[in-house]
Write a structure and sequence with these properties.
Length: 649
């Protein structure tokens, strides 16, 4: 509720009058020229004492009534711009009180001063005070309500945003003022109420590019890309911010193909490419693992003047690593003149995900010793992952302890996940369970998932049941956890328990997330394959190639791992379903189009199943081809019938 009734003046608002300085040299100038001189002096004033002297002069010199409010508003602006400690609010009120009757423009400057220098929501207290003291004598301008809206947005206070909306109508009558409406949209968006923002937008009589762009940004932030598309498509004028919001929105919501399509259109139209849009495109390319797109994006970055930008450079390192080009990532890293913790962390995580543990650890040592860069939580995830993939138990335990004791980084659930993975890989599954039970933070699904994965490798069915029980509570829709437990119990010959798990799956009516794989062709076009996909224009040739490949592998001893199929169907149907897995379709298309001698790179959104892992491993030997697969766990480098993961993923 907005209170408009008069209240007593709070003690914190009492002010003292400015003191006239004993001597301050002034040139002998006419009043207009003197005003210009003092305006320049105010704008460049270096300190609060100096501004207080200028304030004393301004209120004592014979300036016209129309000039003084302008000069004092500049004084308040300069007061707000000074570094802390800021002038107290009572002093700013004294500046405001120098003009009678109260000036609306000076009131805006006063509210802005409070917004910049005072605690959150101070402009609201000040607004109420001005209303109580001056009433109708002080008409408020639209900019006053804009400042209130900014204060609500900065504080993420939805009640304050609603109060601003109310007083803009009741006090100012500005509910149809475009400047105020845009500010209200921004406040509601910042406070997370996109519905209220959209209501203001829909009721606007005249919308400008800021109005349209604000709603596009709002929908992008909450992941409602369908609504963002609708509003973006109807924008009469699309500025750089709107285009950037679409690129980053698609990238942040796992729609990398669309993100790059929009970025392509943005570049083709000659829109200015800024750091944010470029970072969104880099993220999309990282998700896709699109090698040729990666080189193109780097070229745009350098052409747009961001070649030496540390944020963009760090993103490029991460992008190349996630595209499977770890050596290219290292080349970009080595060529960067400025490196920060994000640059080093991207490179360390990249090396770790590719199984190059010794290089990752060596780079960490260089980072903290020679470069003197303080590591953060992501850095240690990279270091611990490197230790895990290389089976360096002692080193992993050492760095886990150093993380808190030496560098002050508190271990998160993600760090514990790395440690459970490390111990699990080494066969220390009981120790991994003990670590989980001793955690100082609440274990999330990643922790229990790492433990369940270790149980699969080492046949620990009892501990698997403990891990799965927690996963069923934390991730009730995660069908993969049910499948993994079922397979572990089946391997242990516990068929009654297998039946119970499968019955539980049926009762829950769980559906597997749609598996999708991406493959980049010679022309840079990214091809997308879903499980059982029949939509690709070359689907007949792909399936023909796949059938020929299966027959060739069976002659070399390939036997499909039917337990990778979770459905209760006969063995023939299970084998048919396995042949429709998205990574097999992508691989067949790669063999069909790239020819011999070219490495095949595939990105998959889910964990690669046991059968596809075996299948691709055998293809790398039979076809003498290098195959690089990135699933949601790590990179798999298949070559000569072996995989870099060593069978643990």
């Amino acid at each position: 509720m907005v209170h408009l009734a008069p209240r007593p003046v709070p003690a914190w608002l009492h002010a003292q009058p400015p003191r006239l300085p004993a001597a301050l040299p002034l040139p002998l100038l006419p009043v207009p020229a003197l005003a210009s001189f003092l305006l320049a002096a105010v704008s460049s004033s270096p300190s609060l004492p100096h501004l207080r002297h200028l304030h004393a002069l301004l209120v004592r010199l014979p300036f016209p009534v129309t000039s003084l409010p302008f000069l004092l508003s500049r004084l308040l602006r300069r007061l707000a711009a000074l570094p802390p400690p800021h002038a107290p609010l009572p002093y700013a009120l004294n500046v405001f009180a120098a003009v009678s009757p109260p000036d609306p423009f000076l009131a805006v400057a006063l509210l802005r001063f409070a917004f910049i220098t005072q605690p959150p929501l101070s402009p609201f207290r000040l607004f109420s005070h001005l209303r109580d003291v001056h009433g109708a004598e002080l008409p408020f301008l639209p900019f006053a309500f804009s400042t209130l809206a900014k204060s609500a947005a900065a504080s993420h206070s939805l009640p304050a945003a609603a109060a601003t909306h109310a007083v803009s109508i009741l006090v100012g009558g500005f509910d149809r003022h475009r400047f105020v409406e845009n500010s209200l949209i921004g406040a509601y968006v910042a406070c997370g109420d996109v519905g209220a923002a959209r209501k203001v937008f829909d009721e606007m009589v005249v919308k400008d590019v800021i109005s349209w762009t604000s709603i596009v940004v709002a929908y992008s932030r909450i992941g409602d890309m369908r609504s963002a598309e609708d509003v973006f498509g109807r924008c009469p004028v699309k500025d750089m911010v709107a285009w950037t919001a679409m690129v980053t929105g698609y990238a942040q919501n796992a729609m990398p193909v669309k993100a790059l399509e929009v970025f392509d259109r943005m570049a083709a139209l000659g829109m200015v490419i800024d750091e944010v849009s470029l970072t969104g495109a880099i993220s999309a390319c990282s998700q896709l693992g699109a090698v040729r797109r990666a080189a193109w994006i780097q070229e745009i970055a350098e052409r747009s003047g961001f070649g030496k930008n540390v944020v963009v450079g760090s993103g490029l390192v991460d992008m190349y690593a996630k595209c499977g080009l770890i050596d290219e990532a290292h080349r970009v890293f080595d060529g960067m003149q400025e490196k920060n913790v994000y640059t080093y962390s991207s490179m360390i995580v990249g090396l770790a995900s590719h199984g190059r543990a010794s290089e990752a650890i060596a780079l960490f040592k260089e980072m903290v010793s020679r470069a003197n860069v303080q590591p953060n939580h992501v850095t240690f995830i990279g270091v611990l992952t490197a230790c895990s993939h290389a089976g360096l138990v002692g080193e992993g335990q050492y760095y886990f302890a150093q993380m808190k004791d030496k560098y002050g980084v508190l271990p998160s659930a993600d760090h514990y996940t790395c440690m459970v993975d490390l111990l699990g890989r080494a066969g220390l599954v009981d120790e991994a369970l003990d670590l989980v039970r001793s955690m100082t933070v609440k274990p999330h699904g990643g922790v229990w998932g790492a433990l369940l994965g270790a149980c699969r490798i080492h046949g620990k069915s009892e501990i698997a049941k403990v891990a799965a029980e927690h996963l069923f509570k934390l991730e009730p829709e995660g069908i993969g956890n049910y499948v993994l437990l079922s397979n572990i119990l089946a391997s242990a010959g516990k068929w009654d328990e297998v039946s119970k798990v499968r019955k539980l799956m049926r009762n829950q009516r769980l559906k597997k997330d749609p598996a999708v794989s991406w493959f980049e062709g010679r022309d840079g076009l990214v091809h997308q394959f879903y499980a059982g996909d029949n939509a690709h224009p070359k689907v007949r040739e792909i399936k023909k190639e796949l059938l020929a490949l299966v027959e060739k592998l069976k002659l070399s001893g390939y036997v499909p791992i039917l337990s990778s199929v979770v459905y209760n169907v006969n063995d023939e149907e299970k084998e048919r379903l396995l042949m429709g897995h998205s990574e097999k379709l992508a691989l067949s298309f790669g063999l069909l189009t790239l020819g011999s001698g070219c490495a095949i790179r595939i990105i998959k959104n889910l964990r690669i199943c046991d059968d596809c892992h075996l299948f691709i491993r055998l293809v790398s030997r039979v076809e003498s081809v290098e195959i690089i697969v990135r699933d949601n766990m790590r990179f798999h480098h298949f070559k000569d019938g072996e995989c870099s993961c060593g069978g643990f993923w």
